[in-house]
Design a protein that fits this description.
Blueprint (H helix, E strand, L loop, with lengths): L2 H14 L2 E5 L25 E9 L2 E10 L7 E3 L24 E8 L1 H6 L4 E2 L1 H11 L7 E5 L9 H5 L1 E2 L2 E2 L3 E2 L1 H9 L4 E3 L18 H8 L3 E4 L12 E5 L9 E3 L2 E6 L1
Parallel strand pairs: 5-7, 6-10, 7-11, 11-12
Antiparallel strand pairs: 1-15, 2-3, 4-12, 4-14, 5-13, 8-9, 13-15
Helix pairs in contact: 3-5, 5-6
This protein binds manganese (II) ion.
Length: 262
């Protein structure tokens, strides 16, 4: 099919509902859970604050507008390679310099929601990804790989979402060997439903925060606090994830959508 026909068909299929658009984004506002790092890891990001400029009132009778305080890594957000020390010297590694074509890519979804329901500390391993590939096919070079855990259902409660007790945070994520395996496969990036791409226990791993360490060291990307991964097929969808063009940005809140054949 020629390129023009491909685009025409996509538009027709979107209009008819044969192809649907799925929102993978959590609401962003003052209630959005924000990661709470242990003091050894450094400072933390503030929560979202919305300040009124005017609201059809004496401060501006014609319009409503606000200004906001928020961290780059807040809510559903993109991690750029420059976010981690392992990626700090790479070219095209901040949100304003990443190649544009990387913002539209195929996506595969590894569903481990049943495992996570039993064990909130669940770690995705390379072996588990190989099992997934035996069922669904080899992960295509240049794909986003998303871990479905149904953790997004906790997103309305910071306590439930961060799930911290006396031993630290308990949330699922990838083991170091899983990320190494995905990089061998040529994955574009890794995405999760939790507050960051790494598991709650990742600070204690070797290296600490292996998803950040290896992905960003390889010039690859992360997506965190994704929602609605239960609405995606294991393969066959396209992800659109374009961060704000922040100058030197290490990451950015963004709207993530998937284009899904029905
Ligand atoms: Mn982040």
């Amino acid at each position: 099919m020629d390129a023009r026909a491909t685009v025409t068909h996509l538009v027709k299929h979107l209009a008819s509902g044969a192809v649907k658009v799925v929102d993978l984004t959590a609401p962003l506002g003052p209630d959005t859970p924000v990661i709470e790092l242990p003091p050894e890891a450094g400072k933390n990001s503030p929560r979202v604050k919305v300040h009124k400029i005017s609201r059809y009132d004496q401060d501006g009778p014609l319009c409503a507008w606000n200004w906001m305080e928020l961290g780059e890594h807040t809510g559903t957000h993109f991690d750029a390679p420059v976010h981690w020390y392992t990626g700090k010297a790479l070219a095209n590694a901040s949100t304003d310099t990443i190649p544009l074509q990387d913002f539209i890519a195929p996506v595969v979804v590894i569903d481990r929601s049943k495992e996570v329901q039993k064990n909130p500390d669940y770690l995705l391993t390379a072996e588990s990804i190989r099992e997934w590939e035996a069922e669904h096919g080899t992960i295509t070079h240049g794909s986003w790989v998303l871990l479905r855990t149904d953790w997004h259902k906790r997103n309305t409660s910071t306590k439930e979402f961060l799930n911290v007790d006396g031993n630290g945070p308990h949330s699922p994520g990838p083991a170091a060997d899983a990320i190494a395996y995905l990089l061998d496969r040529g994955a574009l990036g890794f995405g999760s439903e939790t507050v960051g791409t790494d598991a709650g226990s990742a600070f204690m791993m070797d290296p600490p925060f292996p998803a950040h360490h290896y992905l960003h060291g390889a010039g690859r990307y992360g997506l965190a606090s994704l929602a609605n991964l239960d609405q995606l097929p294991p393969t066959g969808a396209i992800l659109i994830a374009a961060p704000l063009k922040l100058v030197g940005g290490t990451g950015s809140p963004l709207r993530v959508v998937a284009i899904v054949p029905t």
